[in-house]
Design goal:
Layout lengths: L2 H17 L15 H20 L21 H19 L4 E2 L6 E2 L2 H21 L7 H16 L15 E6 L9 E7 L2 E6 L6 E5 L1 H8 L11 E4 L1 H9 L4
Parallel strand pairs: 3-6
Antiparallel strand pairs: 1-2, 3-4, 4-5, 6-7
Helix pairs in contact: 1-3, 1-4, 2-3, 2-4, 4-5, 5-6
Length: 248
């Protein structure tokens, strides 16, 4: 998977989904949002990341300063697609290995492509849920989105409400799609309130099994903890607490 190509393709897929939809439809998994706001959020976020990369920013950039941060009235879908391309071009021009600001600390510019790619995958799930259509995604892409999300969580401080996992407890996520191998299994642990994870198979306090697409939607709280597409084995309280303390 080339993340730059995948980012452009994912934004195109989101745009195709929204092109004929009523922009005022509510998005239940993003309370208070409409599809119009969801489209704006994704496109503006891509342009924000492009600005950070282009300017080699070393501190947070005000998203309100992003040029053309709102979709054009006549072609919002084209604006969305162009937003992803701006980020890809910015990374190529700046250099993928040049360090820039991120909310997890300085990272190579290319970090933003993978982050924005999976922002789009999850928000395409939001749009699919709002429109009542199936969320289709390649298992390998969904699995990478789970891994990327765990990376983001591992960079966060411990939640004020308490650790997402008790020290010594292990959460095992297992995607059941054929062909993923260890890329479709994750062992998540906690140490001093901070999360750490690795690919692998092992026993945990709780194991959650399902297709990679459903694991992704579960860990980002797009489907309920007890959704029938998931098989939860072990201490369900550990699974629910983890979800409550790791919001997207």
């Amino acid at each position: 998977m080339n993340p730059a190509d995948a980012l452009v393709d994912e934004n195109l897929r989101l745009g195709e989904l929204l092109a004929t939809a009523d922009p005022e439809v509510s998005v239940p998994t993003c309370p208070g949002w409409t599809l119009r706001q969801l489209l704006t959020h994704v496109g503006r976020g891509d342009r924000w990341a492009a600005m950070i990369v282009r300017d080699r920013a070393q501190e947070r950039v005000d998203i309100r300063a992003v040029p053309e941060g709102k979709p054009s009235a006549d072609d919002p879908v084209g604006w969305l697609a162009g937003s992803a391309r701006l980020l890809v071009d910015a990374v190529a021009a700046t250099g993928p290995d040049v360090p820039v600001w991120t909310f997890t600390g300085p990272k190579p510019a290319v970090w933003w492509i993978r982050r924005r790619l999976h922002e789009a995958t999850v928000h395409r799930a939001d749009a699919s849920i709002a429109l009542g259509v199936p969320f289709a995604i390649e298992p390998a892409l969904a699995a990478d989105a789970v891994s990327e999300w765990l990376d983001v969580l591992a960079a966060r401080p411990a939640p004020e409400a308490g650790p997402a996992l008790a020290d010594g407890a292990t959460l095992h996520l297992h995607a059941t799609d054929d062909g993923l191998g260890t890329d479709g299994e994750w062992l998540v642990r906690s140490a001093d309130g901070r999360l750490a994870w690795e690919h692998g198979h092992g026993k945990g306090a709780v194991a959650v099994r399902g297709r990679a697409a459903d694991i992704l939607q579960a860990v980002t709280r797009r489907i309920p903890a007890d959704d029938p597409r998931l098989q939860v084995l072990g201490d369900e309280t550990v699974w629910r607490t983890w979800l409550e303390r790791t919001p997207f």
